[in-house]
Amino acid sequence: MRRNFGRIAVATTALGMLLVPVVGLAHGAAAARPAHMRQLVPLYDGGNAAEWAQTCAQVDGSGDGSWIIADIVGGNGGTGDAPIPSWARVIDDCYRYHKASVIGYVFTDFGRIPLATVEAGIDNWYKFYPGDIAGIFLDETSDTIPGTTTSNVDYYRTLAAYVHTGHGDNNEVVMNFGTNPGSDWMFNASAKNSADIIVTFEGSYDTPGMNPYTAWVQPAWELAYPATDFAAIVYDAPNTAATPQPSTACAGLLRQKVGYVYVGMWYDQVPYLNGVC
User: Fold this and answer.
1) What is the pLDDT of residues 58-89, one digit of tens each?
2) Residue 122 to residues 70, 107, 230, Cα–Cα distance (Å)
3) Residues with Cβ within 8 Å of residue 51, at least 6 apart in sequence
4) From CA 155, how far away is CA 238, in angstroms rounded?
5) What is the DSSP letter of 25?
6) For the chain: N or C, fewer Cβ within 10 A?
7) Boundaries of every domain in the chain
8) What pTM value is reported for the model?
9) CATH for the stretch 33-263
């Protein structure tokens, strides 16, 4: 059974149900605002089985489904050095709801981690949790190595190709820039060398000094691409009478053509899963 609910292929579940994902528009093709958004959830809660089950059961499963990011060790640790049976159960159980796929966290430190080290971290996800990992979340990506003019283009294209060519259909590549990249270089190479989704915003909802979403503005080049190419991660978003969440943040993200969202308080908690998103 292929685990990926992404846009890559058609899969059959263990129950014999045919899963036909919606095929996204090609990179560079402008798209209308999405009718609704699916989730990209960094659920870094130590593998709490109840919280994972709640999230996997309640995320949006329409079209190509949602994505849940597993970070087993935490603190930029990814998988650790060996498989963990309790995590294997949590990840595998997520698929019985047929709403989301699980992707593995790998730290890149803005291009400062050697390629071989990052590739080994990618391999561990597929080796330790075979059949259950649908792709890789490359955290802390950037146009250049911070404090330098050294381009990261070849570095991240190499990593995209490493995932896309080495792991069959379970090869979604999500790059977390956390802020707007300067151009569309992560999309304008061959499909093998390109990202599938990029996170162009990560920050608080409106807390000063914590990169507030309420001050975020997209560059024009992003608006020319399909919403399904983009994700936003909004944390520290209290649900109040004045700003009910997730509806308040999601209403803005919907207008901004962002196809995958996270709206919540902190990554070690279940996000808001009911609302406009």
Assistant:
1) 999 998 899 999 999 877 778 989 999 999 99
2) 12, 10, 22
3) 43, 45, 269, 270
4) 37
5) P
6) N
7) 33-263
8) 0.89
9) 3.20.20
